[in-house]
Each structure stands twice: as structure tokens, then as C-alpha cells.
Amino acid sequence: MEYKLVVVGRGGVGKSCLTIRFVANHFLEEYDPTIEDSYRKRAYIDDESCVLDILDTAGPEEYSAMRDRYMRSGQGFVCVYDITSRSGDGLLRPHPTVKDVDHPAMVVVGNKCDLESQRQVAVAEGAALAQSLGGGCVFLETSAKADMNVQECFFAAVREIRRLTNNNNDDRTNSTKKKKKNMNGGNSQRCYLS
Q1: Where is this region: Disordered (predicted)?
Q2: Exposed e or buried b for every residue in 86-106, given b needs 16+ CB within 10 A?
Q3: Inter-residue contact 126 to 81 (CB < 8 Å)
Q4: Which of 13, 14, 76, 114 fits as disulfide partner to 143, beta carbons 3.0 to 4.6 Å?
């Protein structure tokens, strides 16, 4: 299986640091603004081999047109904010009109939790934000520098994609069963033509 993940958030929140820590197990010491970088990583998630196709996006507002394209192409979203910056908690998140679903597979990530002494956004605020997005959105705090919950945030995004896909498949199956039941006049007898 291949999963398309998109990492979104304001500039400087640590999107690239998280992605590179996950893909290459390396921490970037210097901030270099990203326009768009793409990575692939093979992983085993819950005993299933899969490939994660990760798009690390631009944070600055001048790239908003590109961001709409990212939203359409992604299956899951890792929405990152910086716990040390109050201005960084306004997330850039997939909007239903862009993604055509009410609740896309999302993980809300409060990054830089190794800088606890500089914290401006409380854990409870991040959890409340995830809850407000609905659909069972997952919340984690991470540190790319200390390698805390980095793998977990990407794996959680894949698990959300799987969960939503399974729910959609169940909904389709139930819908098909209802249609067949209605076609049979509401009873469970089957009629075969020979």
C-alpha cells in the first residue's frame, strides 16, 4: 500500500525538521524555508508493509495556491504548529471544499515540546484544537530535535487513513445491503431466474 501524506503548517514550525527526522533520522539545525519537498519511506505499520509518500509544504502565505493543490492530492495530513509561538497555533488545515470530505485524515502536531520552558501553547489547547476539527482527529506533541513522537505522528496519519477508508467501505457495504433489501420488497428472500 502507498499512502500520500501532506505536512502543513505556518513557516518555521518545524515541518521539514519533523519530516527529515522521520525519513532520514537526521535533525536540521538551521531553518531553511521550504517551497516543496517530496520524500518516500518504506515502513511497517501494524504489521503491514507500506510506502509513505510525504509532501513537505511551504509555510508562507504567498504559496497558498500551491497549498490548494497539496490538499487535493493528499490522503492524510500532518498539521504542525509550534508550541513556543502563540502565532503558530493558527493551523493551515485541509478545508472540506478543497478535500471534498467533511473530516479528512488528520493529525494535529504540537512541535518543539523539548522547549518546555518556552511553551506558549498549552497541551490542553492543542488537544482542544484537534477535537474541534472533528472526525476523531489525533493529537500529539513532538520534538524533531529530541526525536520524540516523530514516527508516531506519521504512523498515526496512516492509521487515520485506514480507519476512514474502512468506515467508508463499511458505509458503502451497508448502503448496498439496504438497496438490495429494498429491491426485494423489504424481505430477505432471494429470487433467481434460470
Answers
A1: 166-194
A2: eebbebbbbeeebbeeebbbb
A3: yes
A4: 114
Q: What is the pLDDT of residues 73-117, one digit of tens each?
A: 789 999 999 999 987 445 544 444 445 556 689 999 999 999 999
The C-alpha atoms of residue 110 and residue 121 are separated, in whole angstroms, by 8
Residue pointed to by grid coordinates 472540506: 96
All three cell numbers of 67: 497549498
pLDDT tens column, 151-176: 999 999 999 999 998 887 765 555 54
What are residue 59's phi and psi, to 5 degrees? -90, -40
Cα–Cα distance for residue pair 13/34, rounded to 1 Å: 11
pTM value > 0.85: no
